[in-house]
Amino acid sequence: MCLESNVLAVLTVQHKENNGLSREEAELQYIQKAILLETPLNAHLYRLRRSKNEVGPG
Fold it and tell me: Where does the record place the FERM domain (predicted)?
């Protein structure tokens, strides 16, 4: 439960920080913060498709 409450607290702060930013600005800010982390972030920024037939990047 401690981890869950910590995640919720961090998300609340990030939501307030990103209020008013465009999607692109928020993503750029996230990437800039992720670069500064001491531990590697094992994630990617590719959008998942809902189905194999969906067109577009992802």
Answer: 1-58
CA angle centred on 22, ends 7 and 35, rounded to 5°: 55
> Residue 48 contacts by C-beta under 8 Å, 6 or more apart in sequence?
58
List, for residues 7-50, the tens digit of each pLDDT value. Answer: 888 888 888 888 899 989 988 988 888 788 776 656 666 777 77
Cα Rg of the chain (Å, integer): 15
Packing angle between helix 2-18 and helix 23-35, nearest 10 degrees?
130
